[in-house]
Amino acid sequence: MAFAPFNDPRDRGGPAQPLLIAEDLRKHFPVKGARGKSVQAVDGVSFQVKKGETLGIVGESGCGKSTLARLLLHLVVPDSGALVFDGDQVGGSLSVGALRRQAQIVFQDSYSSLNPRMPVRDSVAFGPFIQGKKKAEARDIARDILGKVGLDADLFGPRYPHELSGGQKQRVNIARALATGPRMVILDEPVSALDKSVEAQVLNLLRALKRQLNLTYIFISHDLNVVRYISDRVLVMYLGRVVELGPVDRIFEAPQHPYTRALLDSRPSMDPERRIEEAPITGDPPNPIDPPSGCRFRTRCPFAEAVCEKTSPALTDVRGPETHVAACHMQDPASGHSGAGHG
Amino acid sequence: MTDIAAIDRPLDTFDEQAAPATRVRGYWRSVLYRLRHDPVTLFFAAIVLLVVLAAIFAPLIAPFDPYKESVVGRLKPLGWRGHLFGTDELGRDMLSRLIYGGRVSLLMGVVPVLIASIVGGLLGVVGGFAGGRINTAIMRTMDVFYAFPSVLLAVAVAGAMGGGITNGMLALTLVFIPPMCRVAETATTQIRMLDYIEAARATGAGTVTVIRYHVLGNVLGPVFVYASSLVSVSILLASGLSFLGLGVRPPTADWGLMLSTLRQSIYVVPIVCALPGAVIFVSSVSFNLVSDGLRAAMDVRL
Amino acid sequence: MDQGANSPLVEVNDLSVKFVSREATAHAVNKISFAAQRGEVLCILGESGSGKSVTLRTLMRLLPGRAKVEGSVHVNGRDVLAMGSRELRDLRGGLVAMIFQEPMTALDPVYTVGQQIGETVRRHTGCGRTAARARALELLELVRIPSAARRLDAYPHELSGGLRQRAMIAMALSCDPQLLLADEPTTALDATVQVQVLILLRRLQRELGMGMIFVTHDLGVAAEIADRIAVMYAGRIVEVGPVAQVLANPLHPYTAGLLASTVHGQDKHQDIDAIPGSPPDMRRLSPGCSFAPRCSRRTAVCRMTVPEPQFSAPGRMAACLNLPTAAE
């Protein structure tokens, strides 16, 4: 996937500079009633997003991906860690308000993603209006962007959310996020609530919009097939931590972390002749309130050993042409794990 | 290349089905539709309308002067010499006094609820949106007032302030602020965490703007419905205050006051003496049932 | 009155279900007919609004009061639509059991898992408390819940999502049903848990010889669990057949469109073959084929007549006026 040309006047630093750097983001939510305990939603997540790429983030429930999405826009304030947007530190040289002019978020379509009492065009025009445009100008922007997502502004503008189908509502969500002209869009499970026939339409739309508007995407989903289709690189999360990160083809063809492998093997085969006979891993994802010590995956990992309980594995480089890291003791020859050093 | 516009356009002009999810009537038209087809609510709404119109046009429709006394024509039964509803203990025409009494009762019914809605509503929205300690401070203060039975509280406040219409309305307003606050706070708390509020914040909107554009519109519904049911309670309480002598002063016509003064004469002309009570009952129940109907109609499954 | 081993376990003929309200009538199910055999897994596949869940619930008459049902539904030879309330209570949980999508709402939060299963057992077999508890333990072990004895006394909120789903399956199996109805039981589960539950259901179905009707919107899930698959669209069944055949060689354009648009290893540099338009509004169905507005194969006659089922082979049906001929 070729990266789009960079003619955006807001661009600082050119194509070599990552659009977003997340450094050691941490967010724990205290548990009401149980003193001292907290939900360790995001626990030391670091990654970079290149300009013009789509970074896919996958994980199951409790892995912290939704919290991470909100941390990236400071909708939830991180306990610690840094965010650097195109070279500027968020909270330092770049205010949160200024960040929100350049990055936006699209939520999972549910009944709560659009104000039920506002007609669609007002919901979409709200963003530009808040960011200083006059009402009439905001309305024009809304009309233009609704057209870009394939909705006739005259037909759909005055409608209320309950008069739209799921796919149409999601397109309105996308329009709302794009109305302020962001450079980066975070998509939090944007197609999960849609019917399959509509999901494909929205994915096609997202790809087209990315090309047209020079966007960078962070695409969060639990559906691996969708992530494979749309992402350039993939980040796998488990219980608040990054367990693997690398180019999409490498992750899907040669996953290095046992969890990634299990996740990939859990996908239905689509072939009745080759059904999955044995579950790749047993049990449920554990509770983020009391995560296991050391490597958090060790309670379900078929390769767990004593070292996995004592120390958390760091993201170690995996051999290959592009950056591919996995947080597993088996990747680190010095860890003491019996499987280490075998790649 | 995706032809984006074609995503939703049907393959040729096979209109209706492929057309976007069909245009349903707007929310308010939907509400009106339901109301139009709800005979019970319509009936009682007609009564409410009657009461309101009678109160507004009292000078035009009252057959007699409500303050004109007559020594001879005291406590006369229904229909006596043109007095459709008889006369009271000072010879004044009951019908005219009931009509004029409606003005006071409606005033004391609606105004306190209106003010309480605004004050309590704002407090509730602020508390609900702020959450945390501010919310606790506001809601626990409200709880203190809530702990008192409304009648007791109204009587205590009105009595302490010395009675009269204004003090009576003030007392009722104070009684109604806590429940209105609670309704608004609940509605606000429910919406606060929804995605579209987060999306609004994500565009950089400040708290006041978010409340103004996104919260108020959604909170108004439950607040309005609850307020309409409070009107019926307010009429009852206001009548109660007047009955106890804490509301209007004689000779002003007021249903509660009339009930109080006619109480002793109940063995003379029972029907006439019961009339003010009947009117209070009918008005209060009508407002109540209309508010129920409104709630049912507004609870459109969006 | 039980039928012989060769007659179908479930026979549905010309079933129509309407939801009537003052404002509109929604035609959720429109004259469908199908049969499910003993010991087979029939998967009803459809998107939201297709009528699949309503169909499933009609088999147990678990519909709200404003539903109007026409047609005939026979389970094990007995006419479900004609049953009185006593017979229905015996049917539900006894001959036929159901598992739902959200185990948290299907299990009562104020009773332990053991108590709930025990209650179902006692209701249907009339045995005593101790026997019921023993049976509950047996069932929890059957569904492979670890530390089953301890979990008997757990409340639903103390269990994880996957365990709750297993507990619900245990409850459904408690009275040896011959027919298990599953309404999207894995949709709300994580991928690694979903695969465990699917494998469990397959194993149980084989071991206990139950018939199963499994409703889902996910083609992948259908491929994993079904023997036969019935595809529904806008309240009608548009295609039926053995799952391998339907997935490899779909006859109906909707099925073909669904397969093409399901994201599964497509080339990322190309658009996905999406079906244009949206599913129809069930309150205003137009005459003719409901899929026609979105169909690439449609002709003028498609909007005038509802296609009748065409059988290209026994058990292989597609309701389309423009089926691919042998030459295509």
User: What's the β-strand tally of chain B?
Assistant: 0
Number of helices in the DSSP assignment of chain C: 11
Main sheet overview of chain C? 8 strands, mixed
The shape of chain B, in one word, is elongated
Residue share in helix of chain C: 25-40%
Give start-end ranges of low-pLDDT stretches of chain B.
Answer: 5-23
DSSP strand count of chain C? 12
Please state the structural category of chain C.
alpha/beta
Any low-confidence stretches of chain C, pLDDT <50, length ≥5? none
Spatially, the strands of the biggest sheet of chain C line up as 6-7-8-3-9-10-12-11
β-strand percent of chain C reads 15-25%
Task: Note the gap between the termini of chain B.
Answer: 36 Å
Whole-Å distance between the termini of chain C?
A: 47 Å
In DSSP terms, counting alpha (H) and pi (I) runs of 4 or more, how many helices of chain B? Answer: 12
Sequence-ordered SSE layout with sheet pairings:
The complex is a heterotrimer of chains A (343), B (302) and C (328).
Chain A: E1 20-30, E2 38-49, E3 54-58, H1 65-72, E4 80-85, E5 88-89, H2 96-102, E6 103-106, H3 120-130, H4 135-148, H5 153-156, H6 166-178, E7 184-188, H7 196-213, E8 216-221, H8 224-230, E9 233-238, E10 241-247, H9 248-253, H10 258-265, H11 306-310, E11 316-317, E12 325-326
Parallel strand pairs in A: 3-8, 3-9, 6-7, 7-8
Antiparallel strand pairs in A: 1-2, 1-4, 4-5, 9-10, 10-12, 11-12
Chain B: H1 15-18, H2 27-36, H3 39-56, H4 58-61, H5 94-130, H6 132-146, H7 150-161, H8 165-192, H9 195-202, H10 207-243, H11 255-262, H12 270-298
Chain C: E1 10-20, E2 25-36, E3 41-45, H1 52-58, E4 67-75, E5 78-79, H2 85-91, E6 96-99, H3 103-106, H4 113-125, H5 129-142, H6 148-151, H7 161-173, E7 179-183, H8 191-208, E8 211-216, H9 219-225, E9 228-233, E10 236-242, H10 243-248, H11 253-261, E11 310-313, E12 316-318
Parallel strand pairs in C: 3-8, 3-9, 6-7, 7-8
Antiparallel strand pairs in C: 1-2, 1-4, 4-5, 9-10, 10-12, 11-12
Task: Explain this structure.
Chain A is an alpha/beta fold and 343 residues long. Helix content of chain A is 29%, strand content 20%. Chain A contains eleven helices and twelve strands. The longest helix of chain A is centred in the middle third of the chain and has 18 residues, at 196-213. Chain A is globular, with a radius of gyration of 21 Å. The model of chain A is unreliable at 1-5 (pLDDT under 50). Chain B has 302 residues and is mainly alpha-helical. Chain B is built from twelve helices and no strands. The longest helix of chain B has 37 residues, at 94-130. The model of chain B is unreliable at 5-23 (pLDDT under 50). An eight-stranded mixed β-sheet of chain C has the order 6-7-8-3-9-10-12-11, with helices on both faces. Chain C has a four-stranded antiparallel β-sheet with strand order 2-1-4-5, with helices on one face. The longest helix of chain C is centred in the middle third of the chain and has 18 residues, at 191-208. The radius of gyration of chain C is 21 Å and the shape is globular. At the A-C interface, α6, α7 and α8 of A face α7, α8, α9, α10 and α11 of C.
